[in-house]
Amino acid sequence: LVDYSVNPPAVVMDYSVYPPVPVCEPQTDLNDDGAVKWMSDTITGMSDTVYIFHDGYENADGKGAVLFDSEKELEDVILKAKQDGQLPIVMAVHTGQEPFWTDSGGGSAGGSGGWHVVTITDYDPKSQKVSIDNQWGSEADHLALDGIPLSDLYLASRP
What we know:
alpha+beta; 6-stranded mixed beta sheet; about 25% strand
């Protein structure tokens, strides 16, 4: 990755290892909740990334993520982020669950059948629909009226 916000452009380095190494791809181990937040913060140059997932996730340590344990807690986290101007939110989902299984082409997309991250871009509390930008491309997005019911998103978040 190259940071073009500085002059001259600079290679983004991973200083969590010694000696530091260049970050070669925007991909990380979803088993490390802090790594996903670090990657997002490194790419954006900010430290305000909100990363959430179900606290039943086997590697949840809460160091880099906001954890939730129920559909109500998920809604509360999303509403708080929306009210505080912290959208978008990065969220871990399991692609063996709908609608992400279908979005993956029944398992043909990279990472399908396992953990994947999506981006929550909005939430309508009246309809309880969550707008999702899926990194698999625009055909896998669920935005505005085509948002995912909060209950379905919660079910897809569980291990």
